[in-house]
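Regression test attached.
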Amino acid sequence: MKYLAYTLLLLSAISCQKDIEIKPNSTYEEQLFIEGILYPGKVPRIYLSRALPFFQQEVSPQEVFARGALVTLTNRGVASTLQADSVFDPFRCRWIPFYQGGAVAQRGETYDLAISYNGKSYAASTTINQAKVDISSVEYTDEFFDVYGGHDGVIIQLQDKAGEENYYRFQMNRMIDNDRLHAHTLGDVRSDCTNGAMYPITDLGRTVFSDINIDGQILTMPIEVSFEYKEGDSTWIFMQSLDVKAAQFYKSVDSQLESIFNPFVEPVFIDSQIDGAVGIFGSAVLSDSVLFIYPQDNP
Amino acid sequence: MVLNEDVLDEVVIEAQRSDENVQRAQMGVIDIPVTKISELPVILGETDILKVVQLLPGVQSGNEGTTGFFVRGGNADQNLVQLDEATVYNPNHLFGLFSTFNSRALNNVTLIKGGFPAQYGGRLSSILDVTMKEGNNKEVRGSGGIGLITSQLSLEGPLKKEKASFIVSGRRTYIDLLARPFTAKGNRSNYNFYDVNAKLNWQVGAKDRLFLSYFTGRDNAEYKETVGIFYKILFGNSTATLRWNHLFGQKLFLNTSVIYNQYDQNIETVQNNSFTQVFSGINDISAKTEFQYLPNLNHSIRFGAHYTNHEFLSKGKTEAQSSGNQSLNIGSIPSKYFDELAFYVNDEINISESVSTSLGVRAPAFISNKVEYFRIEPRATLKVSVAPTSSIKGSYTLMNQFLHLVPSSTASVPTNVWVPSSLRTKPQLSEQFALGYFKNFDQNKYETSIEFYYKTMDNQVLFPAGNQLVESFDVDTALVYGKGWSKGFEFFLRKNTGRLTGWVSYTLSKTDQQFADLNFGRKFPFQYDRRHSVSLVGTYELNKRWTLSSVFVYSSGNAFTLPVGRINVANGGSLFEGNYFIYEGKNNARLPSYHRLDFSATYKKRRTIFGKEYDSEWVFSFYNLYSRSNPYFVYFYVDHNENKPKAKQVSLLPIIPSVSYNFKF
C-alpha cells in the first residue's frame, strides 16, 4: 500500500479531477440494516435502520431509523418484544435510536431474533458461549504500524484459550471533553452541546483479531485509539470475545474501510450475516476491565 | 534454391504476399509496418508500438495513457511479448505511459490473436512478435531524435561488407534533469529510464547465418522528502538471443536459438520510520530449435522443440528504519526453478486451389520439484477461397499458460507479480473458435476482414476482495480462481498504398468472469470488457515535405464496481463509525466512454551539414486534441457542504502538444 503512494503522488501531480454523475444500472431496493450484539449482563439493544440508495443525501440516524418494526427476542421459548428507545450521543450531539429489551442477556443462552418490518420478516439466532478472556497486560505505544499506516495507541497482551476459534475486539471506556478531539476522520467534529463537560464514550476497535494459526498462545495486539488524550487520562480497557458471525461481519466492515481509502484495492462486500438484510445478530463476552492511564499526551 | 539474404530474412516472419491475408490459412494475424508507426501522433514525441497495437480490432487498451493491452477478453499477462524470440515480461516505461520498445530499432511487429500455429505457445490470448532491425550491411547509417523527454540515437553498418552488420540504438529520458530546478531543496526526487538495443548479423557461409541480439531497459524512480519519506522503484528487462539459421537444402531449413531474458523489480519505501522492501525477479534460459520442411510449394511442415528454465526470486520485508543499509541482499534470495518444455508439429498445406489448411499439435509440459503438468494442444485452421480475392477461414486453438500475472492494482505500477503454476494454482487454459471472412479490393490496395470469435478461459486468478500485496507476500496462497468467457465481432479495413493510408477497426465484444469466492459466486463483467471499440487511423502525404496523421479512438467505458446502497454505522465516534457501501455486484457499472483525437504534422527536409546530406524531420503532435477528460478511475466521497455522497473522476492526460526533431544520415 505504501509504495502505491508514489503513484498516487504522481497522479495527483499530473491528473485532474471532477465530479461526475453515475446512474446505476438498476434501482436499489431499500434494505434493512440490523446491528445487534448481545452482551451478557446487559439488556439487548438492536439498531435498525434503512439502507439508502448510495447517492441519496446523507441523513441522520433518527431519519433512517426503522420505525414501526416489531422486534422480538426469544429465549427458552419465552418471547419478549423490544421497545423503541434512544440514547444521546454527546460526541455528535444527536440521538441514536434503537430497539431495547427488558431482560439482560445471559452467557450460555441462545437467543432468536425475529423482526417484522414493512411487510417483510427477518430472523437470526445467536448463542453466547464464547470464553471470557483475561487481559495479561496493557502498554502504551507512541508508534506502531498496520495497513492504515503509523499510529499511537495501546498494546494488549492476552493468553488465548487453546482448542477454540476465538475472535477479539478492543473496547475502551473513558471520559472525554471538547479538548480531546477525534484523532482521525471525525477530527473536525466539535461537540458543542456539552458546555465543556466531560462525557463518557465507548471506543470500539475496528480490527478483529483471531487466533487462527496461533491457537493457545499469547496474543499481542497493537490497538489504534479513536480520541486524543492527555497525560493522566484514565481509561478502562476490555477485550470483547466475539462470536464467529460478529467477527466475520466486523472483519468485512474493516476490510471495506481499507478498500474505500485505497482506490487501488478491490472493493469489499460487507459479509451480511442475516438473510434478506444487511447486518449482524451476534454476541460478545467482555473481559474484566483493566485500568489504564495514559503516560503522556498524544504525540 | 540459392541461399541469399532475402530468403533468410523472410523465412521467419516477413515472407508475405500482398494478398496473404486472404490466401493464407492462418487467421487472426495483423502485421504493423514500423515505418507507418513512426508517422502516427504520439505522446510527448515518443513513438510507441504498443499504443498502435491498441488500435487494432480485438485489442482493448487498459487505463488512460497506458500501454497495457487486452486481446479478445484476455488479461494482460495472456499476451506473449517477444523481442527477437525473447520474452519481455514488462514492456513498459514510466508506469506504463511508454513501451520499452524503441521503434527506431525495430524491424517488424506482428500481432497474432487467434488461430495460433503450433510453434506458438505459453500464452492464452496473443503473441506480439517484435523483431529488431539487422543493420545495414553495405554502409554506415545513423538516425536519431530529440524529443521533449527523451533523446535517442541509432547507428548501423557493416562489420564486413555484405557479410556482417551491426545496429546499436540507445534512448534515455531526461525528465530528471528537466525537473531538478523545480524540486524543493532537500527533496531528492529522480526519475529516468533508458533502453539499449543491439544486434549483430553474420552471414557465415552460403548456408548459415548467425544473429546475436541484445536488449536492456530500466526504470529508476526515487522520491525523497526532506524528512521521513522515501520511495524507490527500480525495474527492468534484459534479453539476449543467439540465433542460427541453417539451410540443409532447398527443402529443409533449421532455425535454432539460445535465449536469455531477465526481469526484476525492486520497491523500497521508508515512511513513518518503517522500512519496507519488495523484490521479485525472473530469469529465463531457453533453447529452441525448429525445422521447416517444404516438400513442395503448396506444403510446409514445421516441427521443433522449445525448452525454458525459469528461475523465480521473490522476497519482502518490513522493519523499523535504521541508519545502516537495510536493503535485501538480492544474491542471497533463494530461487525457485521451473522447467517448461514443448514439442510441436504444424502442417500447412494447400489441398486445392481454393482450400488450404493448417493442422498442428503442441505438447507442453511444466515441471518443478513439486508439480508436473503435461498438456496436449490441438490447433487447426481451414481456409476456403470463395473468389480470387476473398476467402472464408475458421480456426480452433487450445492453449495453456503456466505463468500468471496477478494484478494487484489498476494502475500500471510494476507491483503486479508473476506467479508460476503450482499444485494450488493450475495452468491457465483456453479454447478459442474463430470464423472470418477476408476480402481485398482494388488489387490489394484495400484489405478487409470480419472475424467472429468465442473463447473460454479456465483457471484465471485474481486477488480476493480487499487484498493488499504487502499483507500477504506468499501470493500463491492468497489467490482466488475462476473462469472467463469472451465473444466478439471484429471488423478491419486497411488502405495500404496511396497518399492516404490507414485503417478503420471496430470491435463488438463481451467478456465475463466467474469466481467462486468473488461476487457471491455470480458472473461479472471483466474489468476491461468494453462493448464497442472504434479506431480510425489515417496518414496523408500532403506533399513531399508535409505528412499529416490523425488517430481517433472511441470505446465504451470500463467496468467498475459501483455501490448501490449505503448504511450508516453510528458508534459514538469509534474508528469504524461512518458510511459503508452496499454492492449488488462486482463491475456492475460503467465508467464514462473513452474517446480521443490525436493529430500530428511531420515536416521532412533534406539538409546539409559539414558538406554531407541528411534527412531531417520536425514532428508536431497533439495528443488528445480536444482535451477530453477520460476516466482513469473513480472514487467516492461525501461532500459535507452539500451533505451528499458523490463520485469523483480522476483523469490523467489532457491535451499534450509536443515537438520532436528526427534525423537520418
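Expected vs. actual: identical. The helical segments of chain A are 4-14, 61-64, 244-261.
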